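Retro notes, structure queue

What went well: the backlog is down to a handful. What didn't: a couple of records were mislabeled last round, so from now on we paste the full input next to the output in the thread. Example, using DNA-binding IclR family transcriptional regulator from Deinococcus budaensis:
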Amino acid sequence: MPRTLATVDSAVRLLELFDADHTEWTLGALARRLAQPTSTVHEQLGTLTASGLLTRVGRGRYRLGWRLLKLSSALYGSVPWYAAAHDAMTALSRGTHLLAFVCVLEGQAADARVLCIARSVQGRDGPPVVGETQFELPVHATASGKLLLALRGWDPPANAPAFTPHTRRDPAAWASEAAAIRAARLAVSRDEWAVGSSGLAVPLLGAGGEVLAALGVSLPTPRLRERDALLRRLHDAAAEAAWTLGHRTPHGRGEGRRANI
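Corresponding output:
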């Protein structure tokens, strides 16, 4: 395992606590969450605030700083396929009125992570679904995670937690499901992360046919009865993005429509 600097690692863990559900933190709350002395966290906050990565608001409260926008702009600018993926996601959300997302697989087989790098809720209706604010998704219990794992030929983590009675953790069952996912180029999750929430995901392909990311939707489980219509929109959005990125097939933009699983 590569050597890491403890101070940098601590700063990263602190920054990762800021998300859509926790946009502000106090010194005391951060120290408790990180299980670190208040004096240590205070030093980290001072350094991060001085660098512009955090900003102090009110009395002893901290938010993410504007300097992060520069870093995020540079990141997305360095990913040539991001704009096409984002357009496909937005069109999918508008067409389905569901939470749509783009996810990528990071790390190696033993510590793979699925990161939601973009999501769109434009026009979303119906009850809330799991995953509306999370950045890292369960690799074994979401449609996007299962899709990316299967297409990479990796197995889920051996110690993967069971979130619901429907979470699949049996290696033999995964081998069969992974083969079906690879054949159909489609993954489905049903009540596996949270009862009442399900998902569909298909791959986003680059010019050479390589898998860049997963494009999908999260939906209330009862809406799986609309699966055929949703899959048509999913495949059309993914095919349009692939076409924009230069991927050509004998069947044109509609190539993404394959057998259901």
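Agreed that this is the format going forward. Reviewer comment attached to the example: The longest helix spans residues 227-244.
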